[in-house]
Structure formats: structure tokens, C-alpha cells
Design goal:
By secondary structure, the protein is mainly α. It contains three helices and no strands.
């Protein structure tokens, strides 16, 4: 007969399992976050005066879209560094 586990053991094992993601899951999560950040920046550029990502107020060329994605990656890196500092 097994002895009951300590109350915190189950929570600890669930937390550990949460961090054991496959490479594909990590890549997909990164891609989803990148696209969400890019969409948020696009909306901000449309709504807020003074934020411009392309020539005029449109994203017409591939370089304008690359600018949007590069800024989204920069935001993602900054968030990845700042979040643990602020919340831990």
C-alpha cells in the first residue's frame, strides 16, 4: 500500500510538468506571442496618433511588415527579461 503524498508534492509535480514542454510547443507559443504582439502594435499604430510603422499610415511594403515583426520581437525579448524581475 502506498503512503499518501505530501500536500505540496502534487502541486510541485504539476508545476514541473508545466515546464516540460516539447520543442514544438515552445516554438508554437513563441510564434503565437509574436503574432499577438505584432497585431497589438498594428492596432496601436492605427489608433494612437504619433505611432507610425510605415510610410504614411499604411503598411504597404514588405519592409514595413518586417519592421512590425522586428518591433514585436524586441517587445517580446524585453518582456521576457523584465517580467521575471518584476514579478519574482
Amino acid at each position: 500500500m502506498q503512503s499518501p503524498a505530501a500536500p505540496g508534492a502534487l502541486a510541485s509535480s504539476l508545476r514541473l510538468k508545466r515546464w516540460q514542454s516539447s520543442r514544438a510547443e515552445v516554438q508554437m507559443a513563441f510564434l503565437v506571442r509574436l503574432l499577438i504582439s505584432a497585431a497589438a502594435l498594428f492596432v496601436a499604430a492605427r489608433v494612437a496618433p504619433g505611432i507610425r510603422l510605415g510610410v504614411g499610415d499604411r503598411l504597404n511594403t514588405p519592409s514595413d511588415w518586417m519592421t512590425l515583426l522586428v518591433v514585436a520581437v524586441i517587445f517580446g525579448v524585453v518582456n521576457a527579461v523584465v517580467w521575471p524581475v518584476v514579478f519574482w
